[in-house]
């Protein structure tokens, strides 16, 4: 079984080799894409996808284009999120954000290019060989990528009096959607049956909700716009995160060879 | 055989029904998408796709998701093109541009959502039933959508001394790519053989080059940044457009039932 570090190394290599070769008149496009991809991060989404696929008996190498596609989608969303008209962030993981390094126009197009490349990469893989699992994985990734945009819109256009329903909508879509895609695509690529798919879909949502709430919880004293953690308060937030992780642990415990997936999704916090 | 008007009507209906139902917290997303889709236009790309498919013996209804995907991609590119950091256009086809009507943040996300929806729509169709032709059509559309972004980058980052090679790169990618996608996807969906595919690929590029040069030619006296038509001059531009259209006509003349495709691509100018 691959370790978390193994999977991360596999993903890193594939992410760079999956970007198009730059052409002279348009080389900024791939330069800007590689700039944001090299900003790093834990590669949680692609590693979860590969780990779920392997746990369920699928082939990691075959799942790699889908894992990269998911990370490209995540990366494009960060580039567009940082734009002045959006969150207006000058820095991302300690480096100037994409538009600070390349200009807003290139940043918009680099994001567009990454989203396009994500789908193109999956289409190239399907030309090589087609299976129902691949088509379902591709659909799960795109469907969740659309949900993510819905979550971003809901986040921007906050309601006057936010409540649990509102925060759950934002977290479910803005954050949990791409984790749902990771769990679902991994399962589809392993040709999992409906019962397993249901488990993995639940796991994806639960992990994503816990992930975003924990992220808010870490910034509970500094966030300027009301976060869900601030809305709930420290104690209730901790309680909910623990509850999510207990439910996730219960699902994952049903499966053999779950060590890597546990290491990715159930750290001690 | 469907007429141009028939195809346009079919496309219009499908474009609107292909957009997701809005949800309460994120309804701006679909509102903004429908706003730009309803701005109209000739629907040239999707109609060419359907027309090529029908001319080559394929089924128009089966090709419709791919035609809509192509138009969503075209529409997202217009929304992002109009942004202040890009062309900064306040109007598009006589209506306020998307960001003028909804704000820059929503416009960025509406574009992202349309590109995502384009790929998602094709994935939904492939879940329904899969064929090699569909996978190739999907790949052709995404590959050309990536080329389009390359063309936009090259257009923005103009070279100091533009020459034929530079202008051809920009026109080939920024404009001709999506017409290439229309011709190729239509042929793939009709399960055309390699020889026909080669013809249709040539036709797509040639029509796209003629289309952009004619567009530049119409604005030859008013364009503020050097266009290819200005670079070539009026006489040479007219000559090149005529040459392109003669070559296109020769290719299309090889095929029976070409009346609708001729009407779409070979108007008297």
What are the defining features of this structure?
12 helices; mainly alpha; homodimer; 269 residues; Farnesyl Diphosphate Synthase; two-stranded antiparallel sheet
Specify the oligomeric state: homodimer
Helical proportion of chain A? over 70%
Distance between the termini of chain A: 25 Å
Most residues in contact: chain pair: A-B, 54 and 54 residues
Low-confidence stretches of chain A: none
Strand content of chain A: under 5%
Q: What's the CATH H-level homologous superfamily of chain A? A: Farnesyl Diphosphate Synthase
At the first level of CATH, the class of chain A is: Mainly Alpha
- Neighbour order of strands in the largest sheet of chain A: 1-2
Number of helices of chain A: 12
Note the run of SSEs of chain A as H and E: HHHHEEHHHHHHHH
Structural class determined from secondary elements of chain A:
mainly alpha
Largest sheet of chain A: 2 strands, antiparallel
What is the alpha-carbon Rg of chain A in Å?
Answer: 18 Å
How many structural units, i.e. domains of chain A? 1
- pLDDT average of chain A, as an integer? 96
* Corresponding CATH architecture of chain A: Orthogonal Bundle
């Amino acid at each position: 079984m691959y370790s978390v570090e193994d999977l991360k190394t596999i993903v890193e290599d594939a992410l760079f080799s999956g970007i198009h070769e730059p052409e002279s008149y348009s080389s900024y496009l791939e330069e800007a894409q590689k700039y944001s991809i090299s900003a790093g991060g834990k590669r949680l989404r692609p590693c979860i996808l590969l780990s779920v696929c392997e746990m369920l008996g699928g082939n990691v190498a075959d799942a790699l284009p889908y894992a990269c596609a998911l990370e490209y989608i995540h990366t494009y969303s960060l580039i567009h999120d940082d734009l002045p008209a959006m969150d207006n962030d000058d820095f991302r993981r300690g480096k100037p954000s994409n538009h600070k390094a390349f200009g807003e126009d290139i940043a918009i197009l680099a994001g567009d290019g990454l989203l396009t490349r994500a789908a193109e990469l999956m289409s190239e893989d399907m030309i090589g060989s087609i299976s129902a699992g691949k088509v379902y994985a591709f659909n799960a990734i795109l469907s969740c990528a659309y949900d993510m945009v819905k979550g971003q819109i809901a986040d921007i256009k906050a309601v006057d009096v936010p409540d649990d329903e509102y925060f759950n909508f934002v977290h479910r879509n803005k954050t949990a959607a791409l984790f749902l895609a990771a769990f679902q695509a991994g399962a589809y690529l392993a040709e999992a049956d409906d019962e397993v798919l249901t488990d993995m879909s639940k796991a994806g949502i639960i992990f994503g909700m816990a992930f975003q709430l924990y992220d808010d919880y870490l910034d509970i004293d500094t966030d300027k716009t009301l976060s869900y953690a601030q809305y709930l308060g420290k104690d209730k937030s901790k309680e909910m995160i623990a509850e999510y992780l207990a439910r996730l642990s219960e699902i994952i415990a049903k499966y053999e060879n779950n060590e890597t997936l546990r290491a990715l999704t159930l750290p001690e916090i």
